[in-house]
Design a protein that fits this description.
By secondary structure, this protein is an alpha+beta fold. It has a 5-stranded antiparallel beta sheet. α1 packs antiparallel against α2.
Length: 200
Amino acid sequence: MELRATAFVCAARNHAETGAVVRLMTRETGMIGAYVAGARGRTLRPVLIPGNRVEADIRSRIEGSMPSAKLELLESRGPWLGEPLASAAITWACSLTAAALPERHPYPALFDALGALLDAVCHAPSARGWAAALVGYEALLLRELGYEVPVQRPDPNDFPALLDALDRLAPRIARYPLADRRSDVMGARAVLRDRLGKIS
């Protein structure tokens, strides 16, 4: 396997003494797990922040083995980690994507929607500016994976209706794409929903 592509870092887990296993969302190939050597060093640690857009050089010498990746930072979400709502939204969107999507199955619409959601979270003046994008992303993910979506998309300017839509999407997400890991991943969503509720 040889692939060079723009990707979103969705998850990173320490592996061995200095490396990490990362989950990268690419437009062409979908979700890819890869080993990044030296990931815990000062240079690469800021690159592996969930939500970061990177240029990934992914290679595997043996069929069926985990590929290795070299990553170059294109856009950092680091400046928003100190903002509670933005940080919670980025964490949830990336955790959901990493946990729900199968390996190496392309979802170009989800790739584009994830990028749009992350941009909205980082650049909208408040959560009222990106809540509709969050509802849309969750609904799209369910549809792309073949599950029924239990809500119609509400008016983007009706914040209480957007919160209601999020509440109605939660059981479907927990029951289907996150059925095997809902306790830890859905915890990130609970944090986000709590913070959103405080501004309604």
